[in-house]
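pasting for the record
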Amino acid sequence: MKSHEYFMKKCIELGVKALKNGNPPVGSLLVKEDTIIGIGIENGKSSNDITNHAEIEAIRDALKSHQSINGSILYTTHEPCIMCSYVIRHHRIKTIVFGAKSE
């Protein structure tokens, strides 16, 4: 079984990609049964679409190939905002692991 640290390191790598594209450094992964099912890179600023938060992008990515993401784990570099939290709750994501708390 892979550790939280393993998945968080991957999120940090995604956050670096977001930053290089002019976005806040946020990366997210959706994991189910120790397998990455969704990847999200923050791109709200570069796409001019404020709904493109990394957490929502990871969920959208997972839903392309999984009918249900109930019970999955969301890893993200930053604490999810209210908008993302609603989407997370709607999809019944079981656990959230985040790196930095929002202020």
